[in-house]
Amino acid sequence: MELFNSESKKIISDPINVNNPISLQVLGICSALAVTIRLDQAIIMTLAVIFVLCSSNVILSVIRNYIPTRVRIVIMLSVIASLVSVVDELLKAYLYDMSKQLSVFVGLIITNCIIMGRAEAFALKNGPSKAFLDGLGNGLGYGLIIIVVSFFRELFGAGTITLPDGGAGYVLWSIPESWYAAGYENIGLLVLSPGAFIILGLVIWVQREFAGVEEDA
Amino acid sequence: MNFLRKIFEETGKFVEKGKPLSWAYPVWEAADTIFFSTNKQTSKGPHIRDNMDIKRTMFFVVIALIPCYLFGAYNIGYLNALALDIDRSLLANTFFGFGYVLPILIATFVAGAVCELTFAIIRKHEVNEGFLVSCALIPLTMPPDVPLWQVFIGTSFGIIIGKEIFGGVGTNVFNPALTARAFMYFAFPTKISGDKVWAVGPDGYSGATALAIPANPVEYDTASNLFAASTQFDFSLMNMFWGLIPGSIGETNKLLILGGAFFLIYCGIASWRIIVSSVIGLVFTAFIFNLLSGFSTNAMLTITPLQHLLIGSFLFGTVFMATEPVTSSHTNTGRWIYGFLIGVLTVIIRSINPAYPEGVMLAILIMNMFAPLIDYYVVQSNIKMRLARNA
Lengths: 217, 391
Fold this sequence. Notes:
Number of helices of chain A: 10
Shape of chain B: globular
Oligomer: heterodimer
Number of helices of chain B: 17
Strand content of chain A: under 5%
Number of strands of chain A: 2
Largest interface: A-B, 10 and 13 residues
Radius of gyration of chain A: 19 Å
Order of helices and strands of chain B: HHHHHHHHHHHHHHHHH
Distance between the termini of chain A: 40 Å
Strand order of the largest sheet of chain A: 1-2
Radius of gyration of chain B: 23 Å
Helix content of chain A: 55-70%
Shape of chain A: globular
């Protein structure tokens, strides 16, 4: 199979745009709300999810013909859980501050419906290379949304933009003191979970408008 | 008038269907119907139209709000004179207050009009007058010293999230004015959470509001004693009724609110059932809490029912916000339940949770959410009763 023929392009681009796992399928909302307080958390979480999603898709796709249908959920879970444990240990070893901030949500990647959903819906029916592309596409689609959400939440909620680095995060830009002196205030609502819901809702609105998707009434 | 008519007919040609400026039709239509009644004819039934269309209904609510605006402006000036310890005439006080009310009003209307026009043009429908009432209500719920950009953001949020995403006027679940207020309440808590007074005074001038005094007492005492001990403002029942206390712009004078209530009920716009039942709910819950207050050290429980009625914006909320015809219950039995629960929830939020000194806003928003459910069960139980009767 060629890597960049139109079919494989579609496998990658669909989940980013017209079949986005968060904004169109509304999966993985829990983590999208939890880790979007700061941009650097969202970026690391995106990388973690892309890693787990691609690896689990490929592994399950390779062994798909040996999995008995009745026990497939158990096998899928054990593969995903092992991969998540690997990610968790890696974060603890090399990005300790970040792993502290993300705390339980790295472990909760196991329960992210996107990963199980892609394994069930795609990896068990397609070859490894396609499954890899599907994992990559869905991971990027997930990442796109949570990065956009966290960008707005952090900028307007806390007044900073933080990029990930080895330690507690590198502050790329923060709202200057003179603005605060002139009367500017951060929107405290956005730091709370309801704020994430509102931003996520607006992002879903805009994205569906662009993707041209209409919900059946 | 012929001169005006001619202008509208001439300009109307530019925005007809097929012309390059046809996207601006909603703007033209809105301006036209301010001056002239519509010349549209009905093509389908019902053909009989009431003179009280949406525009007139909305206009009546705005009329009922005007006294609140005037008193609000005067109160700002009065409290400012009190804080600075100077003598000023009634007129000078009012003019001083208008210096604060007018910018807020303008910011609200600009934000409201921009959102409403944008959506009217995108969705190609006529501009609906509903935003006028929302925009007239929002400044009255604001503290006088609120920053204008916050008003602008709050109003846009209220109009877009509270109304437009549900499909516009008549299909919204939440009261847009209260949605705007709630957004600002949580987004900018330092400014309008309701525990610090909102008088316009010298730098650093502040004090506790009537609701915050029993919420954070230095030492446990009954609410009445705590009010009497407050030296900064006069929190006697009489003074709270006349409204010469700090608060949101429009809610302090209870007499004008009651006047507005009678006016709206007389015109058939507001439902008296909601107003009466919410007062019953408030008095009932406050009375129960009074009985229970011996078991607790929470001074909020000792606020008497009458004080509950006069403190804060309960009356303003129940008269102008809870009775909004779109978001309240539509069945008469439903209205009794809806209003009663607003009263109950107001006292519960005020008394039990010290973080939210004022509860009426949240109470109304919560009950807005339940209004369709209440209606559903009222209708279903009616159907069941009639089936049983005829079985």
